[in-house]
Amino acid sequence: MKFWSSEHIFNHCWERVTQAVWRKYPNDLNPNVKTMDVLDRHVDEEGRLHTTRLVGSEGFLPSWVCSMIGVNNLCYAYEHSVVDPVKKTMTMESRNVTLSGWVDVDETVTYSQHQENDKTRLTQDAVIKVFGISFKDYCESLIKNTMANNASKGRQAMEMVITKINREVQDLATNIEQATSRLNSEFEQATSRINTELEQAKHGLEQATIFPQAFCEGSSCKTASS
């Protein structure tokens, strides 16, 4: 049995980090993850989001080990996550399906808000057990080292996704600002045009009122002279 744990602090808020988790795959830094299928998703009575996924990945064991025990190099694992927006925690628990009975890898990943609100703490813990083979200690160490290596790449991938999200948010804010400025400009032009038309209409009404009055006064004067 081997134990593995890791901790990392992201210099990004919890909302941004957990948003990036859902967009982490596929990425060039973790090409071993091949499939990611959602089996179930629901919100419980406490407002927590539950998601169950089936994850397919390569490199779980060396190809020669897979060949020796007669399994495909693409291995699957169940992953269940719970997102609590009130406590600001995201917990993901996974266990392998492929090779179950030969190898058990139980991993828990937690993203929680740091005491500094603009940071997020990531903790990863795993228990690795290999059964029924004479070189199980070697296999357990190999899996442990692979997980550590993938974790480092995974954190880099997260930073890439977060950068992409920040850029999208900035682009959206810029587009909204430009659209708002354009609408304000069009509104000012329309208001100016309407005011001009109102002034012209008002002037026309005044002229229309003056003309009959002058005509009537002129007619009265002619009658008096007669």
What is the gist of this entry?
With 226 residues, the protein is of the alpha+beta class. It has helices at 14-22, 63-69, 136-225, and strands at residues 2-10, 33-43, 49-57, 75-84, 89-96, 103-113, 120-130. The chain has a 7-stranded antiparallel beta sheet.
Describe this structure in words.
Helix content is 47%, strand content 31%. The chain has three helices and seven strands; from the N terminus they run E-H-E-E-H-E-E-E-E-H. The N and C termini lie far apart (128 Å). The mean pLDDT is 85. The protein is α+β, with helices and mostly antiparallel strands and 226 residues long. Strand 6 and strand 7 form a beta hairpin. The chain has a seven-stranded antiparallel sheet.
Secondary-structure map:
Blueprint: E1 2-10, H1 14-22, E2 33-43, E3 49-57, H2 63-69, E4 75-84, E5 89-96, E6 103-113, E7 120-130, H3 136-225
Antiparallel strand pairs: 1-7, 2-3, 3-4, 4-5, 5-6, 6-7
The portion of residues forming beta strands comes to 25-35%
Query: Which overall shape is indicated by the principal axes computed on the Cα atoms?
Result: rod-shaped
Question: What's the number of extended β-strand segments?
Answer: 7
Poorly predicted parts: none
Please state the CA-atom Rg, rounded to the nearest Å.
Answer: 35 Å
The helix-and-strand class reads alpha+beta
Instruction: Return the string of H and E elements.
Output: EHEEHEEEEH
Residue-averaged pLDDT: 85
Q: Which properties best describe this structure?
A:
226 residues; alpha+beta; 7-stranded antiparallel β-sheet; 3 helices; rod-shaped; Slowmo/Ups; PRELI/MSF1_dom; Phosphatidic acid transporter
